[in-house]
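Hey team,

Sharing the Diguanylate cyclase DosC run so nobody has to redo it. Sequence (254 residues) first:
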Amino acid sequence: LALETDLRRAVVRGQLELFYQPQIRSADGRLAGVEALLRWRHPERGLVSPIEFIPLAEEAGIITELGEWALAEAARQIVAWRRQGVAVPRMAVNLSPRQFHAADLADRVERILAAAGAANEWIELEITESAAMAHPEGAVQVLRRLRARGIHVAMDDFGTGHSSLAMLRTLPLNVLKLDRSFVQHLPESETDAAVASAVVTLARRLGLSVVAEGVETEAQKHFLADIGCDLLQGFLFARPLPAGEFEAWLARAY
Ligand code: G
Ligand code: G
Ligand code: MN
Ligand code: NA
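Structure output:
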C-alpha cells in the first residue's frame, strides 16, 4: 500500500509523464497522429508501467485525477507542438473504464481541452471493449455527446474484449484499433491473416478507420497496407518516446 500512498502524491510531485508513439498512414508513410501513454517516474522504482498503477489508481479512487492530468498534458503538448510548427494532426489519449462511465465525461473533456487551447478535432479518446460493454446504453450516450463535440473515439485492443457485432453497429466510433495479438504472427499465420483482413473490411464497411497496433516488421507493414489498413503503430516506426525524443525522431524521419 506504500505504492498507493506514493501514487496519490505523484501528480502534485510532478512524477507523471506522457510518452508519445506515432501512428503512420500506410498509404504515404506520413504521420497521422500520436498516442499518449502514461508513465510514472517513481523516485526509487524507476519507470512504473500503467499496467501496474492504473488498476491501483482505480481502486484508490484517483483515476479521474490521473486521467484528467493525462488529458490536460496531452492537450497542452499538441498545442505546443502545433505552435512550434511540429505537424501532429491528432493526439490519442487512453481512458480508463471508470472515467468513461462518468455521466459528465464529454463536458469535462471539453473544458480541459478549452483550457489548453486545443481544438476538439485534434483529440481522440481510446476506450476499451470491456468498458463499452459494461454499460452499453450508457456508452452509446457518452459517445454521442463526444461525437457531437467533434471529439474522435477509438475502440482500443479490438478483438480481445467481449464486444459483439451488434454493439459495434450501434456505437458511434471513429476508429478500431486492431489488437497487437492479431498482428504479431502476420503474415505467416493464415488464421490471423484472415482475422485481420476481415476486421479491416468490416471497419471500412462501417465507415471506421483501422489502426493496427504492435507493428514490428516490414512484412507486417506490407501485409497490413495491402489489406487496406489505414494506420500503423508499433516499434517498427518508434517506441513510445518522451516529448523531446519524439520531436527528434520526427525531425529525422521526415
Ligand atoms: O505503453 P504501455 O505499455 O505502457 O501501456 C500499457 C497499458 O496502459 C496499455 O493498455 C495502455 O492502454 C494503458 N495506458 C497507457 N496510458 C494510459 C492512460 O493515460 N490512461 C489509461 N487509462 N491507460 C493508459
Ligand atoms: O492498450 P494500448 O494499445 O493502449 O497499449 C499500447 C501498448 O502497446 C503500450 O504498452 C506500448 O508500449 C505497447 N506497444 C506499442 N507498440 C508496440 C509494438 O510494436 N510491440 C509491442 N510488443 N508492444 C507495443
Ligand atoms: Mn491505447
Ligand atoms: Na491497444
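The radius of gyration is 18 Å.

Ping me if you want the raw files.
A.
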